[in-house]
Amino acid sequence: MIGYAEAPMAWGHTHGMARLLGVDLAGAVVDGWLQRAELAALVATCESCGATPCCSDWLAQTAEAETLPGFCANSDA
Fold this sequence. Notes:
Elements: H1 8-20, H2 25-31, H3 36-47, H4 52-61
Helix pairs in contact: 1-3, 1-4
């Protein structure tokens, strides 16, 4: 199981955003198309983002998405 005990909210938000796009981040690491360091960078970016309340609200109200919201610091990734 891939997770980030030191940043559980950031991991949850990063994982949740990817899931809504149809991406399994843990599976991507296991399958080798995403490096663990790349995933760690996504989580670190999320952890340092100031939009946590917006992110939590968006994740709670969204079932699936084609793109991430503009406030997401990882939207370009």
